[in-house]
Task: inverse folding
C-alpha cells in the first residue's frame, strides 16, 4: 500500500540546504540583527528603570537615589514626589508603548504588504532611533522633564518600532520555504532575545556614566543598522534573479510535501505548490489580502488570542525582570541587568529546540501545549527562588526556555504558516498582514499586562504577580486547545495509516 503524501517524513532541512545560497545567509543575518537592534533599544529602557526612577524622584524622598541634581531643579520640575509614583509612571509608559506598538502592527502589516519592505523597515529603524535619543539622552542633557512629553515620544516610538517585526518576518518568508521552517524560524526568532542581551550588555557598560548614555549608544547603533538595511537588504529572491519559492517544487513529490504549509488543509493534492508571498512571476505587485480576510483565515484568531496572553507574560519579564531583581533581592542594577540575560538565553534555546521538534512532528500546537504546561511549573518555582544568583539564573533560564520558546514560535514560524495557507496561496500577499494581526493582538495583551503588573505589585506584592502570570499561561493553553485536539487527532490518524501501509 502506498503511503499518502501527508505521511511521508523527510529530513526537515533537506529542501533548505539544497536551495540555500549566500543571499539567504545575508538576508538571515540582516533581518536577524535589524530586529535585534530594535529590541536592544527597548531593553535599554527596562534596564535603566532604577536609575530613571532615582533621577525623576527627589533624593530626600528616595533613600536609594544619589544626589544627581540640585534641589532647585526638583522644585522647578516637580516630576514625582516619591519612588512609588515614579514606578507606576514607568509601568504606564510600558503600557503606552505597547498599545501604540499594537496599533502600529495592524497598520504596518498592511503597509508592508503594499510597499517595499526594505524602505518601511529602514525608515522605522532610523526614525525610532531618533525618538529614543530624544527620550533618554536629549531630555537629560537639557534637564527637561515633562510627563506628557515622555508619553508623546513613547507613543511615536511604539508606532515606529511596529514596522520591524511584520517586515522582517515577511522577508524571511519570501526567502525560506516550509522545509525546516520550524528550525530556521526558531533559530532566527532568537533575534529578540539576542537584542535583549545586547541591550542589557550595552546598558550595563555605560550606566555608570548616566542612563542617558545607555540610550545614546543603543540609538546610535540602531540608526547605523537602519542605514545598512536600506542599502543591503534584498526583500525577495526575484531581486537577484533567483527562482521564487515553489518554482521547482514539481521536481519530486517529496519536495512538494516539504514545502506544504503546516496550517493548510490536510486533504490538499500532492501536486500543490508553495508560492512566494512578496513576488510573483509577473512584474505587477499582486493584490494584497484585506485585514478582515486575514482575520478569517483558519487559526489566526485563536493563535492571536493565545499570543495576547503569552506575550503579556513574556514582555512582563522583558520589562520588569531587572527591576524585580533589584527591588526584591537588593542586587545592584548593573548586576540585575546582567543576570536577566539568562531568561533570554533560555528563550533562544527553547525556540530553536521546540521549532525543530515541531518540524519533525509537522505539528506546532502539541509542542506548544507541552512547553506551556512545564512553564506553569517553572513560574511557580521561580516565584520562590532563593536569594542566590546562581540558583536564580538556572531557574530563570528554565522559565525562559518554556515561555520564551513558545512565544518565539507563535510570533515567527506559526505566523509564517498562517500567512502561507492554501486559501491565500498564489494570488495574494498575506504574511505581513497576518504577522501584524498576531503580534498586534499579542501587544494589546502585553500592554494591558504591564499596567496590571505595576498595579498588582504595588497593592499585593510580587508573589501575586507570578500567580497572575500562571493564570495567563494557562489561558494560552486554553485558547489553542481546539488546535491541539485537531492536530493530535491528525497525528493519531497518520499513525494508523502508516501501520496499515506496513
Result:
Amino acid at each position: 500500500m502506498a503511503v499518502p503524501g501527508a505521511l511521508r517524513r523527510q529530513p526537515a532541512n533537506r529542501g533548505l540546504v539544497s536551495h540555500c545560497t549566500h543571499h539567504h545567509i545575508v538576508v538571515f543575518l540582516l533581518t536577524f540583527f535589524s530586529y535585534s537592534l530594535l529590541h536592544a533599544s527597548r531593553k535599554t529602557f527596562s534596564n535603566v528603570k532604577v536609575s530613571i526612577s532615582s533621577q525623576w524622584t527627589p533624593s530626600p524622598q528616595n533613600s536609594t537615589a544619589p544626589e544627581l541634581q540640585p534641589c532647585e531643579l526638583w522644585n522647578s520640575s516637580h516630576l514625582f514626589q516619591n519612588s512609588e509614583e515614579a514606578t507606576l509612571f514607568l509601568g504606564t509608559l510600558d503600557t503606552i508603548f505597547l498599545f501604540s506598538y499594537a496599533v502600529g502592527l495592524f497598520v504596518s502589516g498592511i503597509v508592508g504588504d503594499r510597499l517595499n519592505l526594505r524602505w518601511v523597515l529602514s525608515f522605522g529603524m532610523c526614525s525610532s532611533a531618533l525618538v529614543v535619543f530624544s527620550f533618554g539622552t536629549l531630555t537629560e542633557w537639557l534637564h527637561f522633564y515633562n510627563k506628557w512629553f515622555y508619553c508623546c515620544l513613547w507613543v511615536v516610538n511604539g508606532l515606529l518600532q511596529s514596522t520591524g517585526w511584520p517586515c522582517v518576518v515577511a522577508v524571511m518568508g519570501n526567502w525560506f520555504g516550509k522545509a525546516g521552517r520550524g528550525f530556521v524560524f526558531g533559530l532566527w526568532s532568537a533575534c529578540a532575545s539576542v537584542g535583549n542581551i545586547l541591550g542589557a550588555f550595552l546598558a550595563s557598560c555605560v550606566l555608570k556614566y548616566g542612563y542617558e548614555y545607555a540610550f545614546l549608544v543603543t540609538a546610535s547603533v540602531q540608526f547605523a543598522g537602519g542605514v545598512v538595511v536600506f542599502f543591503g537588504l534584498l526583500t525577495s529572491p526575484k531581486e537577484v534573479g533567483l527562482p521564487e519559492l515553489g518554482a521547482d517544487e514539481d521536481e519530486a513529490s517529496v519536495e512538494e510535501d516539504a514545502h506544504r504549509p503546516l496550517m493548510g488543509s490536510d486533504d490538499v493534492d500532492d501536486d500543490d505548490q508553495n508560492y512566494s508571498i512578496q513576488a510573483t512571476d509577473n512584474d505587477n505587485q499582486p493584490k494584497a489580502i484585506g485585514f478582515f480576510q486575514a482575520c478569517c483565515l483558519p487559526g489566526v484568531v485563536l493563535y492571536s488570542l493565545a499570543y495576547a496572553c503569552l506575550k503579556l507574560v513574556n514582555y512582563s519579564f522583558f520589562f520588569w525582570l531587572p527591576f524585580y531583581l533589584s527591588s526584591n533581592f537588593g542586587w545592584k542594577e548593573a548586576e540585575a541587568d546582567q543576570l536577566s540575560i539568562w531568561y533570554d538565553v533560555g528563550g533562544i534555546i527553547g525556540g530553536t529546540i521546540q521549532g525543530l521538534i515541531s518540524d519533525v512532528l509537522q505539528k506546532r500546537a502539541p509542542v506548544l501545549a507541552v512547553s506551556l504546561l512545564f512553564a506553569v511549573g517553572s513560574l511557580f518555582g521561580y516565584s520562590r527562588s532563593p536569594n542566590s544568583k546562581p540558583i536564580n539564573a538556572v531557574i530563570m533560564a528554565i522559565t525562559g526556555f518554556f515561555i520564551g520558546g513558545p512565544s518565539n514560535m507563535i510570533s515567527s514560524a506559526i505566523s509564517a504558516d498562517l500567512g502561507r495557507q492554501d486559501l491565500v496561496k498564489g494570488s495574494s500577499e498575506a504574511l505581513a498582514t497576518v504577522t501584524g494581526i498576531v503580534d498586534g493582538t499579542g501587544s494589546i495583551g502585553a500592554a494591558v499586562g504591564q499596567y496590571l503588573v505595576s498595579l498588582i505589585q504595588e497593592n499585593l506584592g510580587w508573589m501575586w504577580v507570578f500567580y497572575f502570570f500562571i493564570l495567563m499561561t494557562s489561558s494560552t493553553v486554553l485558547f489553542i486547545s481546539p488546535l491541539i485536539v485537531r492536530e493530535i487527532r491528525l497525528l493519531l490518524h497518520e499513525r494508523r495509516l502508516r501501520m496499515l501501509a506496513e
